[in-house]
Amino acid sequence: MAGDLRRRRPAGAADAGGEEEGDGGAEAAAKAGPPSGGEEAGRGRKEALGWLEWSRGWMGVVGEFFFQRIAASHLANPLELPPLDGVSIIVTGATSGIGLEIARQLAQAGAHLVMAVRRPKVARELIQKWQNEQTEVSMPLNIEVMELDLISLDSVARFADTWNARMAPLHVLINNAGIFTIGEPQRFTKDGYEEHMQVNHLAPALLAMLLLPSLIRGSPSRIINVNSVMHTIGFVDAEDMNLTSGKHKYRSWLGYSNSKLAQVKFSSIFHKRIPAEAGVHIVCASPGIVHTNVARDLPKILVAGYRLIPYFIFDPQEGSRSTLFAASDPQVPEYCETLKSEDWPVCACINYDCNPMNASEEAHDLETSQLVWEKTLEMIGLPSDALEKLIEGEPVQCRYGQQKAE
């Protein structure tokens, strides 16, 4: 299907900027220009992407837009999945777009699917629809619905507490849900964080950390983060993750791209620090440029463009393939361990064509990734030694949800 992952590795970091793809809406920000702040602050700390890195990132976005369908032409649509009976999988944002397709196909492959969603009623209606589409001889779908709202870190902590209380194994966590409020003014959640950063990075990071005990029970298990090519034009200042310092003028595309880069950086340190014996593997998967609900927020002329050029843009079923591959292919855990043993600086990344890909050059900076890791733990209310304690089975106090993960 996609070759042998175990015999492959990403291209070198020097090729980073244009080797990946992301979710729908990427091209909407192309005309906005690079973030303010300059390429370097003299000889001091880097404060923004340089023009070369930024330009390379946008070249990658444009190139993938025109050639993603050709590059992925070898893939079946829908992707053929192995039997998943007995495999427990949580999918966030499972009622629309890519998440809906991911959930539907996993359920039909026999997985015990948990739809973690803001609108449980919509999820139950989808389950009924899918069940009605099953043939008379098919087994009933094994799906349940749990409420989860990433705009609230309390909701994330309560969700994890409810699941962990079952003392049941979790085999795959798919952090799919995300937002891109194109052209909208800067907004903050009740937790005090910029919306893109919380929904796309902080909440999924908290969910993954708090569910670690259940993922260890389900070992070998996987955390799959649905990422985006937009991370290639992002730059994360660990001391300004809310973009409130004034060093960078807020733009919606900047908030989005920074959140996606933060996710890659956090995932990379997570990948490096979790011991092999824990059996939890972390992957960032890029779905390609996909026509999803994000297009509803685009200017009318761009919405019309989406409809006029369907050949270039993936539909949600096509966009679901890289995540489904990352969640189900038996080669993925070994590939993750290979990168760890080779001390590769970035977690495993799977491209929209189900092949290994490289993250951006900025994602390879381990020093700033470590800062993002530490700041993220602080922002999501976990102690700096939370990972080590959770791996050892010790309780960890979380500031949100008034819960302990055990």
From TrEMBL:
Region annotation Disordered: where it falls in the sequence: 1-44
Start-end of Low complexity biased regions: 26-38
Gene Ontology MF, one: oxidoreductase activity
Keyword Cytoplasm included in the entry's annotation: no
UniProt cross-references to InterPro entries, sorted A to Z: NAD(P)-bd_dom_sf (IPR036291), SDR_fam (IPR002347)
Cross-referenced Pfam families: adh_short
Domain of life of the source: Eukaryota
Key words of the record: Oxidoreductase
Segments of skewed composition (Basic residues): 1-10
PANTHER family: DEHYDROGENASE_REDUCTASE SDR FAMILY MEMBER FEY, RETINOL DEHYDROGENASE
Family: Belongs to the short-chain dehydrogenases/reductases (SDR) family.
Name of this protein: WW domain-containing oxidoreductase
Natural source organism: Triticum aestivum (Wheat)
